[in-house]
Amino acid sequence: MSIPQAIGIIDSGVGGLTVAREVIRQLPREQILYFGDNARCPYGSRSAREIRRFANQMIQFVMRHPVKALVIACNTAAAVVLEEVRSRTDVPVIGVIEPGARAAISASRTGRIGIIGTELTIRAGAYQRVLHRLKPEVYTVGMACPAFVPLVESGRYDSPEAQRIVEETIAPLTHEELDTLILGCTHYPLLAPLIQQAIGRDVALISSAEETARELSTLLSLHNLYADERASGPRHQFFTSGDAERFRQIGEAWLGFALEVQTAALDPLYQV
Known about the structure:
By secondary structure, this protein is of the alpha/beta class. The protein has two domains: 6-95 and 210-263, Rossmann fold; 97-208, Rossmann fold (3-Layer(aba) Sandwich). It is built from eleven helices and ten strands. The strands form two sheets. The protein has a six-stranded parallel β-sheet, sandwiched between helices. Strands 6-5-7-8 form a four-stranded parallel β-sheet, with helices on both faces. Helix 1 crosses helix 10, helix 4 (97-107) crosses helix 6 and helix 4 (97-107) crosses helix 10. The radius of gyration is 18 Å and the shape is globular. The two termini are 31 Å apart.
């Protein structure tokens, strides 16, 4: 059964659950329809052409349901398709890059901000462009962390192996005198304790989830789309193109409640 007037959230896998958790916390009456493309994750090393096709397939699936707003929770997908999706979609659409950049500018004391993300997110310079638009004098340095998403998707994000990989990957950034580090992939908050340990306690970690949920709240208010206070409690739905059981295990550990996860095939649309 479709959810009436849900918030659609799409991601390359389980990473967008970090955004979903914050949406649930800030907007507890709202219902969520989540799709994770776990079968084709990670996106970071793929071409922009592939990511555009994958993202549009997920959006096509989500928009078959009564969705009143769409969150592109995958940084990589947002860097590629956000503006074109906004131009052809009737519902409000938000990404995670601008909210994360704004939060980083607010948090930084020295104006020295690092960004970690997938290869495509870093190569595209999406965060750097927004940061410099907001504050031209800010110093930025970006670094791709291609090993991080597989750690999260496999459920090994709190393992000794993950600690070693994170420490080795983050080491070059410890010489940059950063005071703020953007977790430029929604999978990375699940590695936040290890990243914090590797980069140092004095560096503020920025996840875009909180700011994205706040921006979503503003959009719902602007368009008079808040859930009816008289409605029954939200019935969230979760879909994956991959292993539903693995998704469920990670999702329940992160969200803190029981999940029913359905496997859904994506139509071979948008072969661009």
